[in-house]
Amino acid sequence: MADNDEKTEQAPEDGQNKAKRRRPGEVRELLIDSAREVFAEKGYSGASTREITERADVSEALLFRHFGSKANLFKAAITRPFSEFVTDFVTQWQHQREHPWSDEKLMGDFIEHLFDLLSENRDLVLALIAASAHESDALAADDFEFNLSGLLDELEVIGTDEARKRDFTGVDIEVAVRAMAGMVLSMAVFQPWMFSGSRRPSRARIIDEMVAIGLYGLARHAPEQG
Which CATH superfamily does the domain covering 10-221 fall into? Predict the structure, then answer.
């Protein structure tokens, strides 16, 4: 029987039913955290709602109450770290507007944090790529859509403002933002395929080179200094 209050979940203990008291929203957080782990380990098709709920220590009924389907939970688990990254970056950018960062600081902060985020969530990104390629029918049936474009739209607003202030004229910001994100994504997720183990560069080398590529690319039409 489904529970009537998300704060309370009945679970047998020593032959008796005792209530597990949870804070509002805690069940949802537990399910998302558990889903991220299971999807990263087993991919979309290999992950079961039963395993996710067992690891979260909640009932399967609550999963479907909160998310409606496995696909919707997958979307939430995938979207969360990227949404948090964009929110944090926008907040930091707003704080520096009174005392603007240098070009190097602004570009470096964006690339470094995005690279670390993607590296830490590499298995989850690969699960998304595999699901998009091989589970398209199942995901489409659940109206699944990973709205990465919407998140990049927020970064595009920042890019447009900064390009204007820094005289980066003639830059197609819509494409440039996505090209930069694509470059960082490739280096974070596909790095093991690009370098042999003995030749793999350090994190610092990779980030420094991406920052330089971004700066020289955006500044190609900027007026010469001096």
Answer: Tetracycline Repressor, domain 2 (1.10.357.10)
